[in-house]
Amino acid sequence: MQRVKPAQRSGFVSYLAWGYLFIVIVTWFAVFLFGDRWWPVTVFLFSPRWFVSLPLIILVPLAAWTSRRSLMPLFAAAFIIFGPIMGFCLPLSTSKDRPGPVLRVLTCNLQTGDYDAAALSALIRDCGADIVALQECPPELKVAMPKGWQTVQEGELAILSRYPLLKGGVQQALHPPHQWPRTSLLQCIVTVPWGKLAFNTVHLPSPRYGLQTILDRATLFSLSRKGLLIEETRHRRRVAQEVQRAISLSSLPVIVAGDFNMPADSRIYREVWGHSYHNAFSEKGTGYGRTEFASMRGIKVGVRIDHILAGNGLGIRVCEPGPDVGSDHLPLIADVGGQK
Q: What is the DSSP letter of 225?
C-alpha cells in the first residue's frame, strides 16, 4: 500500500483550507446580497450562524499538524464568521457628538405580558430612562412608573415618558399566524425641554411562522412549503415600507424604537431603514447585541432584531442591551443626542 507523502497531505489540507475560506466569503456576500430576498438565505439570516464555523474544529488541528501555512486562510475565515457574518459590532463611528442634552431611550418586547413587572420597573428607574417603548404589552400594563410620567398605549404598543406626550398616528398590519391585525406603529410627539421630537415605537411582522413551516426535522427543509416563507417575506417588506413612509412624514428630530423582527444585515432593513437613520447598536454597541432568544425546531437561536434608530439631526452616544426582565427579549438602552 502506497503511503501518502507529507507534501501531498500538505497540498490536500491547503486545498481544503482555501476552499473553506472561499465558501465563507460566498456565504458572507450571500447574506449581504440576498438576506430577506432569497428564501434559503432568509433561513440562514435567522439561524444560528455559528454553525458555519464547525469545520474549523477539524481543519485547524489538521492544518497545524500538516501545513501551518494553511492556518492563514482558516484564521481569515474565522475572522469573517465571528465578525461580519455573526454581526459583531465595535463603536468605530467617527461622527462627532454635538454638545447638548441627551435622551435615554429604552425599548423592550414584553412577550405578550410574560415578563417580570418589578424587574422592568426597577430597570426603568435605575437606568435613568427618559422615554420607554414597549411592544407586546398586556391590556393592563403593570409597570410602576416614576411620579409624573405619562403613558400612551394602543393595542400591544405603549410609549412611556417623563416628558409630555401627544398621541400621533397608528398603523396596523397582519402578523401571521394571527388572523386579526395587530398594531405595528404608534407615534407620539414628545415635548422635551429643548423642543419637540417625533417618537415612534414599532412591532413589525415576524418571519417565525414561515421559518417554522419550512423547517423539517427529518429532511431539514420542506421545499413544498417554501412559498409561505416567500409570501411572508414580501408581506414583511410591504409593512416595513408603509411604516417607514408614515414616520418619514415628520420633519421633527425622530427616534424609532422597537421590535423590527429583522437583523441589521437584512436587505429589508438596509433598504427601508439603513439610509435615513442611525442604528444605535450598529454604531455605538460592542459585541453581538442579541436581543431575542427563540427556539427553532429545538435549536436555540439568538438574534439582534430590536433596534433604536435616530434621524433628522439626532445621533447615538451610547447603546447596550439591558438585563433580563423575564421576557424572551432583552431590553435595549441607548443615549440619543445631537450629531454633527
A: G
What was the pLDDT predicted at 287?
A: 96
φ, ψ of residue 161 in degrees (nearest 5) = -150, 145
Residues of the chain with CATH 3.60.10.10: 103-338
Tally DSSP H helices, then E strands, for the chain.
9, 16
Position 36: which residue type? D
Could you tell me the CA-to-CA distances from 108 to 33, 93, 175, 278, 318 in Å, in that order?
29, 25, 18, 19, 17
Domain 103-338 bears CATH identifier 3.60.10.10? yes
Burial 28-50 (b: 16+ CB within 10 A, else e): bebbeebbbbebebbbbbbbebe
Verify cis geometry, omega within 30 degrees of 0, for the bond prior to 138: no
pTM recorded for the entire structure: 0.91
96 φ, ψ (degrees, to nearest 5): -100, 135
Give the residue, 285 or 12, on which the prediction is more confident: 285
